[in-house]
Amino acid sequence: MHCYLEPCIELARRAGEAIMAIYQADDVGAQEKSDHTPVTAADLASNEVLMAGLQEIAPDIPVMSEETPIPPLNERQHWTKYWLLDPMDGTGEFILESGDFAVNIALIENNNPVLGVIYWPSKGVTYYASKGNGAFKREDNGVSQQIFVSPRETLTLAVSRRQKLESVSQYLNSQFDTVALGSCSLKACIIAEGKADCFLRVGPTGEWDTGASQVIVEEAGGCITDAEFNPLTYNQRETTENPDFIVMGHPDWQWQKLISPHHRSLD
Fold first, then answer.
1. In CATH, which of 3.40.980.10, 3.40.190.10, 3.40.190.80, 3.40.50.1220 is domain 155-265?
2. Which long-range contacts (CB under 8 A, 24 or more apart) does 178-183 make?
3. Quick one: pLDDT at residue 231?
């Protein structure tokens, strides 16, 4: 799996270039999908780059992408290895021109993420990891450094730009600072690099929103679980929708005591 890392980093950058070519166009081709989530020409352009690139990198490995039809479970449940893609996580932020959107590539083996690449096109920054080899951040100058979750003594919560803080604070048994970002995967990455400690996600997401994030956060020393602190699952259900989930940093925080079990009612 590690041999795929550099090719995937380069592929994510190429997909990011396709996104940025559309970013400030007068018409980004925004539409609403059948599940009432937005999609733009940039999502589709990125998906096209990724699908073609992965066919070149590993033609025998199947691909599951947010922007392509998902095969029924009986066709994919026996996959031992597959690519899991979110061609552009943060489509709403792309439309708002906040810059907080990312390309997500994950490799799943035996229903567990083992490789993750997340590219932040507006910053030229790549986060990446493979199982057992640590998590890293690569700046646009090509320099990489290993990243770790923070052992800080004060809690910093990653929140969405449009999230009401009072709706979050009631579910944490601690005082906290905040840092705001748009996409789910970028919030996970800032936890992996120690700039925040926790992110509570309540509401619809897909497995492609957490696949790459999970291996990066875990290799940095943190974890991602569902709202009941159970492991997330991949390719084991007919639906690919995630449950509510929590991204957690340093284990010294004793997260099960810190986060109220009633946080699932957050809206």
1. 3.40.190.80
2. 181/100, 182/90, 182/92, 182/93, 182/96, 182/98, 182/100, 182/101, 183/89, 183/90, 183/93, 183/100, 183/101, 183/102
3. 95
